[in-house]
Amino acid sequence: MAKRINGWNENIVSYIFYYLLCPCILFAGSNNAQNAARSCVWDKVKQYFSPPAEFADKFGDYASPLKFYNGKQVEKPVEWGKRREEILQRWHGLMGEWPPLLVDQELKIVESVKLDDYIRHKVEFNWLPNQKTYGYLLVPDGGGVGPAAITVYYEPETPAGIDSKFPYRDYAVQLTRRGFVTLSLGTRGATSLYYPSIENATVQPLSIMAYATANAWHALTKVQGVDSKRIAIIGQSYGGKWALFASCLFDKFACGVWSDTGIVFDESRGNINYWEPWYLGYQPKPWRKSGIVTESNPARGVYKQLREEGLDLTDLHALMAPRPFMVAGGAEDPPKRWIALNHAIRVNEFLGFKNRVAMANRPKHSVDAEAMQQMCDFIEYSLMPDGDSK
User: Which H/E stretch holds residue 5?
Assistant: First the structure.
């Protein structure tokens, strides 16, 4: 039986990774083995923290997060807390204030299945004050306290490895095999993402999804073996938007991975559709016709207001600092997105941190084996003990 030692699962996969791909560990004493393992993983991910030369130190037309909304410059790191709070207040003020977090609940296990090297529990909990949902809790064999991750997608079965319709989207399974406790969530079990109702929602759907995931974080911290300081969130496409908003608006997530999300507003791309009423364009019906923004079919609601005020998601990226995040870019987030990410790099450097903003790129929206490896390596590195890089 595989064992979880010091929060890491000593199964065949990790054995091959650490002892064959990282021969330096063979020569490290027990006190240094952890640092040697971290160094080996760093060798795999370090390339993703530097923009290509053609995009280095380019900032485009995005407003600097290091300026207050009145135009005043943030001059000292000690002032960042005030600016950060201003960003949160402005965005929550536009999107709608969250209800109180549900901090005292636990995941209710409905059924359990023992698989090769982990147990998969179907669980239920309240993610909104008026709504329950279900998901899958994957727990690796063995004991100890270690890292965890929440995966978000259209439905929870795909990341949990139950639905094999799409290859390389079983994030929860892959991370569990690396020793993570994982919670796979989706919206299939939701009756509505419009709170308190679709007729009169008071919070934009993407924001209420972030709120729901914050409630999931609190429930996950009560699972035996979960280190509450080492919980990641990862999502692809729709789930990537969800993961972006959750990790930026709720600072308990230790790191985030956003896979081909559309990390900035871009009305030339139909899949970067933050203007839709199920994201940031909610208003009471009748809704605009779905599709790209045009003069004859303009944006509405909060999204329209955000655009009119010159706000963009670079504000939210900055809220991650100094927590690390990775953009796993595909068709919607090509290398030119470094121009937006450079603002987050600048915020981290201003605060005295480096190697906190990463991007890897693939040609297509779909995830492939290499992209899956990149994302899992990034999370593993970011959540290793003594993982801060300054």
Answer: strand 3-5
